[in-house]
Amino acid sequence: MNAADGARHCALWFGVPSAREQALFAAHGWRLRTVQLDCARQVGMRGNDVVIAIADLRCVVPGQLAALERTLSEYPELPMLALLDASDPADHDDPLRQRVLRGCRDTLRAPIDQARLAETLARLEPAPAPRRDIDSIGGRSPAMLGVRAMLHRYAEVDLPVLITGESGTGKELAAHALHDLSRRRDRPFVAMNCGAIAPTLVQSELFGHERGAFTGAATRRLGLFESADGGTVFLDEIGDLPLDAQTNLLRVLQEGTIERVGSSRPVHVDVRVLAATHVDLDAAIAQGRFRQDLYYRLDVLRLQLPPLRARGDDVELLAREFLDAFRTHNPVQARGFSAAARRCLREHDWPGNVRELLNRVRRAAVVAEQALIEPQDLQLGPAGAQVVALDDHRTRTERQALLDALRETGCNVSASARRLRVSRVTVYRLCRKHGVSLDEMR
Ligand SMILES: Nc1ncnc2c1ncn2[C@@H]1O[C@H](COP(=O)(O)OP(=O)(O)OP(=O)(O)O)[C@@H](O)[C@H]1O
Ligand SMILES: [Mg+2]
What we know:
It is built from 18 helices and 14 strands. By secondary structure, the protein is α/β, with parallel strands linked by helices.
């Protein structure tokens, strides 16, 4: 079922599928990935994959329901199917469960059978992603006019671009725009989040593998670079790329060739490489985690996205655009922003940048009971203090869990990763985020 542009059909299964269910999905051409209820971020997806989710509520416990609800609110566009037990009462009175069910696009009572699966999957399949061209990048501030001018200039030349900027500033959007403005626009755009894939799988994901290259490699598989041939490869969070894959990426940039895992025959590929990072690569180089020669190769052209707080009136302009766009698809009361809400929008610091603005506006549009959105709907102003406190609380809990895992495993990164059910790369990232030095702890 893979589309000509290299897109794959992936179903994220929150819970535990039976062997029969796994076989059914495979027979319909869907890759089934089992994910922990609160860890959708760890799934390595390519930018143009068709992704749906299955919420397996047959054996879910309350704590997991809460995690599932969070996932639903974080990924509002992800089409989700709820799987219920045949004996499950439809009018279950657990409010959390009701909210999860309302967030799901469809419901099926297990077991899934062959005939209904095809029909359900077709209904769930997301519409083709809208072309994310330069017009989808909103903002008229001098900073953003500069970014637009750069995008036009950079799109014309076939050199790597390193896109930098804080989280949520639109790095991925900019990568799409560079592709869509370039002569490669009718060829694939393939994205990979380097931090979201288990380090052991990165090489095969990027460069493919030959049959029998390792246990489980039953067939030859093309990697990202070969499936993007003629197009663009976008390597997100490039700072998380394991060192051995960095060496091979250097070869792609220097010689335009890749080697599949299990083969030493170079294969020519014609791709443009775009990379993004929200961390300081200089620090990663100083710590020996990132190759300096690769950095020079990637950083030929640099696109720096400004934080939202440096974009002046764009905040209000974007808030308006986000609200209008949301209103066209959702029946909500909100038509605009009160003067107080506009003041709060201007004064807020926007640590999460455009993503934070988008999420706040959507949430406000849903909860506002009047035509004008007020500061409390945006969770800004005096009531916003609670939100910050909750975020602080989450950060502290995450740090504590990390420290506990490291202590209990004698600072063994692999064992800590298993204990926290995250990848090793994530453990390193968490250490950086929370200022935890493994060397000092050892
Ligand atoms: N200038 C903009 N106009 C409209 N929408 C934007 C703009 N910039 C970003 N967005 C939206 O904000 C969200 C975050 O953007 P994106 O994913 O590109 O950020 P990012 O820099 O890659 O973030 P991260 O570092 O967390 O990966 C997306 O939904 C994107 O569509
Ligand atoms: Mg991104």
